[in-house]
Amino acid sequence: MSEEIDETQAQQSFEPLTATYEHLRHSADSAELSEFARRPLPDRADQAAFSRATALLEAVAGNAHTPVEDRVFLAESMPFPNILVKLAEDSEPSVRKAVAANEDDKNWLVGRLTKDPVPEVRDTALHNKRTSWKMRLEGAQNPEVDAQTLAFLGTLGTEIESDAPAVLSSMVRRAVALNPNTAPETLSKLADDPSAEVRHAVAKRQQ
Questions:
Q1: Rounded to whole angstroms, how far apart are CA atoms 20 and 53?
Q2: Any residues with CB less than 8 A from the CB of 35 and at least 6 apart, and which?
Q3: Phi then psi dihedrals of residue 118, to 5 deg
Q4: Do 198 and 170 meet the contact criterion of CB atoms below 8 Å apart?
Q5: pLDDT per residue as tens digits for the range 149-165
Q6: Which of 161, 165, 155, 137 is CA-nearest to residue 193?
Q7: DSSP letter at 195?
Q8: Around Cβ 148, how many Cβ atoms within 10 Å?
Q9: What number of CA atoms fall less than 13 Å from residue 32's CA on the CB side?
């Protein structure tokens, strides 16, 4: 009997959340959605209220009627994967760019954004410290990545992240050296790289 009561209570607490979630997901009221996006989160100590608020923010984040500036705000400030996944699929590049720059991203999510069709989003994701070395290497090999981002990737393991795995960072810098978009000044720096493989790649380019 007590189990039935507990189940009924659980349903009663769940159903209002579901109803509110669906309301926010389909709402066309930009003012309401904006207010919800900017509403301070409850204290984490109140776990039920906190979980409810973050769940409802997922609905707000996925609603195209939420103003762009509020979606960007959520993309910049939220650390929660369920919200960031929604925003990473946003049709507005500025929102995806904000997700790409968010250092609370999971590496698989920011890795997905290194493949974004918009160069600015891709490049921002490649600058994010959460990006995996596999994604960094693929970025360094991509002939569509701009010279500025290649210059950044060419400093990994030397000027930036000096404690990075030597083999992996060397592979990224070597790929930068071989990328046709790499600027002459970046190649000049890489010509003095501590890794012989990187120096050889530069020499190969200069032949």
A1: 11
A2: none
A3: -95, 120
A4: yes
A5: 999 999 999 999 989 99
A6: 155
A7: S
A8: 13
A9: 14
Contact (Cβ atoms closer than 8 angstroms) between residue 98 and residue 127: no
Cα separation, 75 vs 99, in Å, equals 5
**Per-domain residue ranges of the chain:** 8-125, 132-207
pLDDT tens digits, residue range 79-101?
999 999 999 999 999 999 999 99
Q: Which two tokens stand for residue 167?
A: 């083999």
Choose among 168, 176, 181: nearest CA to 202: 176
pTM: 0.85
Q: Specify the 3-state DSSP secondary structure of 27.
A: coil
Phi, then psi, of 131 in degrees rounded to 5 = -65, 135
174-189 residues labelled b (16+ CB within 10 A) or e (exposed): bbbbebeebeeebbeb
Average pLDDT, stretch 37-50?
94
**What confidence tier does 3 reach under pLDDT thresholds 50, 70, 90?**
very low
- Read off φ and ψ for residue 156, nearest 5 degrees: -70, 130
Half-sphere exposure of 18 (CA within 13 A, CB side): 6
| CB atoms inside a 10 Å sphere around CB 28 | 9
DSSP track, 76-121 = HH---HHHHHHHHT-SSHHHHHHHHH-TTS-HHHHHHHTT-SSHHH
Alpha carbons 150 and 123: distance in angstroms, whole number: 9
